[in-house]
């Protein structure tokens, strides 16, 4: 899909902030370790994606009640929902100079009920002219997200007939409504009640 940058300055998609704290020693250490096994931006991006997708369980799948939201905390606790895992992946990409941002979907149950905003990322490899969306949520039966810059392989293709939607905005920082829900929730059960149902 055609993404619309919310900030026209591409350097905003390399910046560090409170949630995407890519100057944190743990983020740097993880990024350096992944880079040492790859050596080029494409291979590194794929390795970082698979690392977050596969080694940080989605807390709804694992049953972990903790809420993490800073990239460094996600990597430290190996825990997070889609938004938190997206913060971690964006931080790892930016740590190696790869522009990356956050994007969102509105998803629902199979009958259209219980809508929630789902988080994913987009990156642009150096020398590239397009942003590619990736979903580091974590795979499980029925979910098979993959690293593919030519054809989207997301966890959840949207179903417009159920009110689901891809939001075209590409954000340099977490959406305020999402970040507030993450920061102010004592546990994942409270987080489900606080997460926005649309943007």
UniProtKB/TrEMBL annotation:
Residues 30-136 form the Transglutaminase-like domain. Gene3D superfamilies: 3.10.620.30. PANTHER family: BLR5614 PROTEIN-RELATED, CONSERVED INTEGRAL MEMBRANE PROTEIN. This is Transglutaminase-like domain-containing protein. It comes from Streptomyces erythrochromogenes.
């Amino acid at each position: 899909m055609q993404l619309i940058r919310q900030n026209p300055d591409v350097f905003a998609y390399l910046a560090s902030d409170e949630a995407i704290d890519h100057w944190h020693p743990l983020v740097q250490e993880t990024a350096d370790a992944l880079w040492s096994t790859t050596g080029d931006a494409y291979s590194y991006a794929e390795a970082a994606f698979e690392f977050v997708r596969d080694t940080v369980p989605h807390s709804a799948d694992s049953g972990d009640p903790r809420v993490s939201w800073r990239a460094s905390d996600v990597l430290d606790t190996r825990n997070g929902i889609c938004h938190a895992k997206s913060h971690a992946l964006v931080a790892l990409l930016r740590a190696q100079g790869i522009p990356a941002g956050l994007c969102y979907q509105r998803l629902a149950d199979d009958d259209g009920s219980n809508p929630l905003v789902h988080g994913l990322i987009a990156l642009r490899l150096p020398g590239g002219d397009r942003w590619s969306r990736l979903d580091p949520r974590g795979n499980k039966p029925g979910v098979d997200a993959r690293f593919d810059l030519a054809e989207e392989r997301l966890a959840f293709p949207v179903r417009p007939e159920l009110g689901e939607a891809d939001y075209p905005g590409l954000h340099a920082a977490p959406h305020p409504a999402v970040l507030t829900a993450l920061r102010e929730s004592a546990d994942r059960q409270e987080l489900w009640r606080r997460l926005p149902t649309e943007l």
